[in-house]
Amino acid sequence: MALTLAGGVVAVYYVAIHPGTAAYDLSLVSTAVALGERIRPASGGFAFDLPTAADRVARADRFDEVYYAVRGPEGEFLAGDGDLPPPPPGTERNGDVAAYDAVRGGRKLRVVDVHVPCAGRYCTVTMAETTLKRERLARDILLSSVLPQAALAAVVLALVWFGVARGLRPLRGLSEQIRARSPRDLRPVDAAAVPDEARPLVESMNRLLGEAAEASAQQQRFLADAAHQLRTPLAGLQAHTEIALAQPVPEACRAELEQVHGATVRTARLANQLLAMARAESGARGAAGPAGVSLRQIAEEGANGWVHRALARDLDLGFELEDATVTGDAVLLGEALSNLVHNALEYTPRGGHVTVRAGPAPGGGARLEVEDDGPGIPPGERARVLERFYRAPGTAGTGSGLGLAIVREIAAAHGAALEIGEGEAGRGCRVTLRFRGVD
Amino acid sequence: MRILIVEDDGALGSGLARILQGEGYAVELTAGGEEAVRLAMGDRFDLVILDIGLPDIDGFEVLRRLRAGAQRMPVLVLTARDTVGDRVHGLDLGADDYLAKPFAMPELTARVRALVRRSQAQAGPRIVHGPLVMDTVARRAFLSNAPLELAGREWSVLEVLLARVERVVSKDSIIQAVASWGEELSPNAIEVYVSRLRAKLEPAGIRIRTVRGFGYMLEEHREAS
Question: Nearest CA of chain B to the CA of A202: how many Å?
Answer without folding.
Answer: 35
